Amino acid sequence: MAQINNKKEDFSPYVKKFWKLFFYCFGGVILFFLFASWGLFGSMPSFDELENPNSNVATEIISSDGVTIGKFYLENRTPVKFAELPDHLVKALVATEDERFYEHSGIDTKGTLRAALSLGSSGGASTLTQQLAKNLFHGEGSKFLPFRIIQKAKEWIIATKLERQYTKKEIIAHYLNTVDFVNTAVGIRSASKVYFGKEPKDLTVDEAAMFVGMLKNPSLFNPVRRLQKVTDRRNVVLHQMEKNKFLTKERKEFFQAKPIVLKFTPESHIEGSATYFREYLRDFMKKWVKENPKKDGDGEYDIYRDGLKIYTTIDSRMQQYAEEAASEHLANLQGEFNKRQKDNPNAPFIGITPAETKLIMQRSMKNSERWRIMNEKGFEEDKIVKSFEVPTKMKIFTWKGEKDTLMTPRDSILYYKHFLQTGMMAMEPQTGHVKAWVGGINYKHFQYDHVGQGARQVGSTFKPFLYATAIEQLKMSPCDSIYDSPFTMPKGRYGIDADWSPKNSTGNYRGMVNLKSALANSINTVSAKLIDKVGPEAVVDMTKKLGVSSEIPVQPSIALGAVDITVEQMVAAFSTFANQGVYMKPQVIVKIVDKNGVLLYEPVPESRDVMSKDVAYTMIKLMEGVTEYGTGSRLRWGSAPESARVTGVPYNLRNPIAGKTGTSQNNSDGWFIGMVPNLAAGIWVGNEDRSAHFEQTNMGQGATMALPIWGIFMRKCYEDDNLNVSQKPFEKPENYSVKVDCWVPKKAVVDSLAVEEDTQTEEFDF
């Protein structure tokens, strides 16, 4: 008979093995996390790095009216504080990305267990704090599982440290500041500006939901490319907000029914507002960082990473009006220019030989980007030249937008030489603050700055410097008379090597005229007689005191403007007259601060007395004659039928305006500089090459090419009551006794395309 074994089986060895294995595994996990925190699996952020996370923060360029007009960046990131975030954006973020955000300390245990048990099929378990840790210190990391596990451990460790270091509000703000929303937008502030043209605090509920929806995969949920997909994802976020009781069902359905309406304005270095000014500022900052190193001895500031704020004198509204004025006029005038070039076999060049044209084209090819790249790659010169004859697909600039075309690079150079260019600057005479800076017609296609870089022949806009010298030295007044008659300066006088006999444009002479009328109509013989009396050296000295640094020959011909000067220097010089004889150096920066608001730089205004208040005011009254009945009088009247060619006529500006037109030799350069008591603006218009120009003076003169931009700009400024641009008379000095209101004959008809008196001289065209 078999025996039954009642002895209980001994499980103690298995229990011991289980607990042994458990403690080994538990200890291994502890050691794993310790090793990770000690940096054995790769560097970990220090306390200082957690306190000041290293992120690329864009430098902002801020206008005088508080608008960000541009940035310098590697990543277009501009941080915001939690207080600047709308409540519904925060609620949408928490409801969608981390429902238990306010309950955990960096790691969501419940979510982690759920993700582990479902092997990830029910979604991930990264908290907002973990996502921030990844964004700040690790990025996406490796797809290789062991490395991925190590990265996850690092995220947990960093997340718990971040939770100890920052408040929940700070973590949310940090997180939204680090997210890449694609299309040049890094961080919620840049994204709000790029996609909707507004600050984060102004986002609506549905707009905030769109951004939160993008967080899942910004490239996939790109509203510019996949609007329907983004709309569906946005509606999921709105559903999550309802689920978490942040929205009622009715409000959810209301926002879900709304279409996404983008105001997509990607920010780039070559597009947007004040592009030429921003490039000028970039060059300034390159020098500034070398001269102003960090005080802690940690090298130079990086304008692309250190989040500086550059507060400028530019007014965003005036900048916009200046750019609009230039575009409105030149797009119109360009059509007239092209029409007049149709029968020109050497278009757009006039009066030069085929050999001279060839030299211009060769010089332009050698200055091109194509030549630079091919030359660096070692191509021989003849092969580079041949490449300019091969038709190539390209985008070209037109006044109706970019156009795709097939064109040889040589033909594209010739095409671009047809375009009329401009330089315009406006500044406050009393402060030197530059309010608008337009260096060209389109920075992407024409990167030469015609305000700060381009010195061009100024024509009759030089004459006020001569008249100021005469008034100061000879004690003349606007109503003093001078005889307009043929004049010859003999050989040897002031060192000239031949007789000089400048003529008036019509070949006619008016006889006795007063000084005010002579300047108003830019009479050349009067200018020649004045420089004969005061001498060219005195005029050069006056011009230098007015801030002009260009080389000016000490010759009588400067009386007619045979001098190259930049727009920037001309506007500053003219502003001296409006500022009662005190020269103010143009100033574009108010201050520079670091990302914490600490002041780094505050320029000291540069000024000097140039002339007495009486002389300055006398010059103002002289130049008022230009716009009252002289070459600039179309600012007040103008004939409407001609507005198709002279944009903006009539301007109907009836307030006191002091100004001067100018036209250079062969109509290559058209100028107008005009002033009211608290604003001076100067404009130059011409082609890149001086051989390309209007053949007829009625179209190529400053009153046609440049003055309309001034008129349109000022009209826009006056329509904006917030700008407070003066329409009052210039301030008269105390005890001023000079006679300035002279009798002038009534002008019966003002033709908007009348030829200026100061054009087409025999040798030097004003």
Characterization of this structure:
The structure is a single chain. It is elongated, with a radius of gyration of 35 Å. Among the domains are: 21-49, no CATH class; 77-257, Orthogonal Bundle (Penicillin binding protein transpeptidase fold), CATH 1.10.3810.10; 349-406, no CATH class. Strand 4 and strand 5 (403-407) form a beta hairpin. It has 26 helices and 18 strands. It is 40% helix and 11% strand. The protein has a five-stranded mixed β-sheet with strand order 2-1-3-13-14, covered by helices on one side. Strands 7-6-18-17-16 form a five-stranded antiparallel β-sheet, sandwiched between helices. Strands 4-5 form a two-stranded antiparallel sheet. Helix 1 packs across helix 6 (145-165). With 766 residues, it is α+β, with helices and mostly antiparallel strands. Residues 67-242 form the Glycosyl transferase family domain. Keywords: Carboxypeptidase, Cell membrane, Cell shape, Cell wall biogenesis/degradation, Glycosyltransferase, Hydrolase, Membrane, Multifunctional enzyme, Peptidoglycan synthesis, Protease, Transferase, Transmembrane, Transmembrane helix. Residues 424-678 form the Penicillin-binding protein transpeptidase domain.
